[in-house]
Amino acid sequence: MKRALIALVAGLALLAAWIWSVNFRGEDDIHDAPPPGPVAASVAQRGAYLARAGNCMLCHTERGGADYAGGRPIDTPFGTLYASNITPDPATGIGGWSVDHFWRALHHGRSRDGRLLYPAFPYTNYTQVTRADADALFGYLRTLKPVQRANTQHRLRWPYSTQAALAVWRALYFRPGIHADDAKHSADWNRGAYLVQGLGHCSACHTSRNALGASRDLLDLSGGMIPMQNWYAPSLASPAEAGVAGWEVEHITRLLQTGVAPGGTVLGPMAEVVLHSTQHLAPADLRAMAVYLKALPPPEGEPPAVAAAATNTDITERGARLYADHCLQCHGAQGQGVPGAYPPLAGSRAVVLSTTSNLVQVVLAGGYPPATAGNPRPFGMPPYATVFSDAEVAAVLTYIRASWGNRAAPVSELSVAQQRGG
Fold first, then answer.
1. H or E element at residue 104
2. pLDDT tens, 89-147?
3. Does CATH place domain 187-294 in 1.10.10?
4. What is the DSSP secondary structure assignment for residue 164, as one 8-state letter?
5. Domains 187-294 and 313-421 share a fold
6. Distant-in-sequence, close-in-space partners of 208: CB < 8 Å, separation ≥ 6
7. Distances 263 to 28, 83, 384 between C-alpha atoms, Å
8. Is 313-421 a CATH 2.60.120.260 domain?
9. Strands (E), 112-190
């Protein structure tokens, strides 16, 4: 018994040492003093551009609040996190941080005081950011107007609220990384990989996650539900979802720059990304991202399309009547849409996607592409949450998914009710 107890204690000590080593090894010495003097204009300009590429302001700005002053809630399956104040206020922001503290936050996921940060701040991607870009980004943040706003306390359930649980999660799922160019690919591909994998943190949405909120591959782009939002971020590799291997590079670039392209229109969370981030990027960087995304290999062993289940005739007839009354004027009698205005429904990958959450969201809440410099007055779809019942939403979507050559499974009334209630 005594030997077993000693072995257990020794095993726990070794486990604790391993967790500590994984979380804290490999860090450079931290210089505590904030950098003196003003920030060079060229550095600030470069940092401002990188902040756009990372879409930093969107998360770190509460609706109606001061830019970058934090407070925006981020709902997760484990509770609510609140974005921090990253203005240069010395008391409540990052005014007392050194450039090394900031680098450690991006690269290692640790705050100024050494606390482990929650991966809702996507350091799992930002660890790929170069030191030079991290320093420029910090320089830009130093030029912002300081805003005195204390950070809002996170509201997480136990044990997710503990540093010990976070340390275990990191030991299992996070390792600091570094971006390295691949000599087998072009300069455009490598630049695109850096932006997509690092600052763009595309995998933060476009990946599936396990019960602990981790993905099997931090750079995976095979699609996944966005936690707590009832939106599905489709696979960027699969030709059946949002893969663009068959697109022209110019069309991919146009989608990232304007939100609309011959092959699709961005809605929901992606519309915010285009609005606040990608439309502001340099054409060369947009092209590089397009080159990288176009070259993504399709998933191995992707299952063939599932044949649509038989549809209840009464439901499809009801859906047809609803479509004629509410949808036909914009989307056409054959679901052909109107070029430059209303997207086609016939032959649309978004319509026949096996995950129907996005379709339900668009019907209930409306669908609005971003207003961009290249498409300043986009056509949108009004919400029908107060017009259609759950059964009517299911009927019209079932009709659309089974018409004009579309062959996809029906949408259930239950799935609509779950999303409306969520």
1. helix 99-108
2. 999 999 999 999 999 999 999 999 999 999 999 999 999 999 999 999 999 999 999 99
3. no
4. H
5. yes
6. 215, 216, 220, 222, 223, 224, 225
7. 46, 35, 25
8. no
9. 155-156
